[in-house]
Amino acid sequence: MAIKIRLARGGSKKRPFYRIVAADSRMPRDGRYIERLGTYNPLLPKDSDERVKMNVERIQYWMSEGAQVTDRVSRFLEAAGILEKKIRNNPKKALPGQKAQDRAEEKLAKDSSEAPAEEAPAKEAVAKEATTEEAPAKEAAAEEAPAEETATEEVPAEEAKG
Q1: Which candidate, 1, 69, 11, 78, places its Cα nearest to that of 37?
Q2: Is residue 88 in some structural domain?
Q3: Residue 148 lies in a domain
Q4: Pair 58, 103 in one domain
Q5: Which end of the chain is more exposed for a tag (fewer CB within 10 A), N or C?
Q6: Whole-model pTM?
Q7: CB 58 within 8 A of CB 66
Q8: CA 121: distance to chain centroid?
Q9: Nearest to 15 by CA among 44, 48, 52, 56
């Protein structure tokens, strides 16, 4: 018989409450257990003393008898200083699942195939706006300059052409 120290869920729908129990590993999660070792209320704030209550002596007894501790309960014991902290490394934790990655790739491919068709008219419109803005600016500069200066500037340009 393999003993596990694990959480058994109680409470109502959307209002979880857990008992920390020593149970046979073959029993259901919320089923029969050997001994109740504490409680865990995830709805309380993290700094609350009532959030996790454990009977440390009994937990140590069951561990000395060979009981295995689940990951969540081991984290509670690490926080209480009973177990030494394990080094955990999950570099893929922040990555989305496979289906989400596939959807993102499809969306990217779809956007890139539509983008050139949309960008071409946009670029032409921007080019037209730029030329219409430059033309009045040149005319305004020509009007502001005295007639003599514009004439002298145009003459060398004509000579260069000829």
Answers
A1: 69
A2: no
A3: yes
A4: no
A5: C
A6: 0.55
A7: no
A8: 36
A9: 44
Which residues make Cβ contacts (< 8 Å) with residue 31, sequence separation at least 6?
8, 23
pLDDT in tens, 77-117: 988 888 888 887 888 888 888 899 999 999 888 888 875 55
Q: Kindly list the distances between the CA atom of residue 149 and the CA atoms of 145, 153, 157, in Å, as whole numbers in the listed order.
A: 7, 6, 13
Together in a domain, 17 and 60: yes
Based on the domain organization, do 73 and 102 belong to the same domain? no
Which of 72, 51, 53 shows the shortest CA–CA distance to 4?
A: 72
Query: What is the C-alpha separation between 127 and 162, in angstroms, rounded?
Result: 32
